[in-house]
Write a structure and sequence with these properties.
With 355 residues, this protein is an all-alpha fold. It is 76% helix and 0% strand. The protein is built from eleven helices and no strands. α1 packs parallel to α6 and α1 (2-19) packs antiparallel against α9. The protein is globular. It starts with a helix and ends with a helix.
Length: 355
């Protein structure tokens, strides 16, 4: 969990840096235009909408991330059942569309803005380059973290943090049996432990990527005084946070952390977007969306978030499940899961019309 405490201040410092004046901005034409001419820009009317956004996004985020965590007691929604796999596929589609349809286009728009100098920003596709590097770095972190934890836990034999005693009790009867039974039990424990370790790495890396993205979108909403766009953003972000939280909550559930770690991860996810909105409100007097420094900083952060989210959705969520034994053993379940992915991605893509 310590990596979150390092990442959040680093991201915030970059965003605050974006609000500071830059000597280079004087050579760029004024890109702001007449903001009040559109009839939507009103700082006094925007503030109550931002307060509503903080409360509504906080509530929907908590519902989304906590819903999978409290459904273990519901047999139909347990991780072992097919319905859980379908819901997780739907949430993975949401995360995939977030990267492709929201974060990546925003980065392209920012880094190709007329407010930026022709050289180098219009001479090289920085968005694609940074997203590609982000995906590669995410792969490195994913791979190295798995190797590190495998060595730390003696080859990947990991037990649920809240249920180690139950596992030992369940396997106790096999220890006194014949050699084949003991060997089979040990092999199964190693396989399940390795899978559990992967779930934990996936949950941690996915949450870190979502935290960066959530702070950025929260800052953008909090700094905006356009009441017309804020209304649409509130609805879109509530939908987004609800189902993105379900995807993350499913990963946290499968990681089988103890209650404290589950609560901490759910808390960080729930509060980052409202915190970003509050930060945007505080910096709204200094933050200029069209300033070169803001465009570059937020554009690069969006590109890196997009690369991470796309990698996590495709590799660690979708490919991992669809190539796993449960879905490979049932064509019917695969088709249902594909439909869920398309439904989630389609719904989130539709939201790009308003956010």
């Amino acid at each position: 969990m310590s990596s979150k405490f390092i990442l959040i201040p680093f991201t915030i410092s970059l965003l605050i840096l974006a609000t500071l004046p830059s000597p280079a901005e004087s050579v760029v034409a004024d890109c702001g235009g007449d903001a009040a001419a559109d009839g939507c820009t009103d700082k006094k009317k925007a503030l109550p909408l931002k307060i509503i956004a903080i409360v509504s996004i906080l509530v929907t985020s908590m519902i989304g991330v906590c819903l999978p965590l409290i459904t273990r007691s519901v047999p139909a929604l347990s991780p072992e059942r097919s319905l859980f796999v379908i819901v997780k596929a739907f949430a993975a589609g949401i995360i995939l569309a977030t990267g492709f349809m929201h974060v990546l286009p925003d980065s392209f728009d920012m880094l190709s803005s007329d407010c930026l100098k022709e050289n180098p920003w219009h001479k090289f596709p920085f968005t694609g380059f940074v997203a590609m590097l982000s995906a590669i770095v995410t792969l490195m972190i994913d791979s190295m973290a798995t190797s590190f934890y495998s060595k730390k836990h003696k080859g990947g034999v990991v037990q649920p943090e809240g249920g180690a005693a139950a596992v030992e009790e369940g396997g106790g009867g096999l220890v006194h049996g014949h050699g084949h039974g003991h060997s089979h039990s040990h092999g199964k424990m190693v396989a399940e432990g390795s899978q559990l370790l992967r779930y934990r790495v996936i949950a941690m890396v996915l949450e870190l990527g979502i935290i960066v993205h959530s702070i950025v979108i929260g800052l953008s909403l909090g700094a905006s005084n356009n009441t017309c766009s804020i209304r649409g953003l509130i609805a879109a972000l509530c939908f987004h946070q609800m189902f993105e939280g379900m995807g993350l909550g499913g990963c946290i559930l499968q990681a089988e952390y103890n209650f404290v770690k589950k609560a901490a991860m759910a808390f960080f996810f729930s509060v980052t977007t409202p915190f970003g909105i509050a930060l945007g409100i505080a910096l709204s007097s200094m933050y200029k969306e069209d300033s070169p420094r803001s465009l570059i900083t937020v554009g690069l952060l969006n590109a890196s978030s997009a690369g991470l989210l796309i990698y996590m959705a495709l590799v660690d969520l979708l490919a991992s499940d669809f190539m796993g034994p449960k879905l490979q053993g049932s064509i019917k379940l695969q088709l249902k899961s594909y439909a869920a992915v398309l439904l989630g991605a389609g719904g989130m893509s539709l939201m790009a019309k308003w956010a």
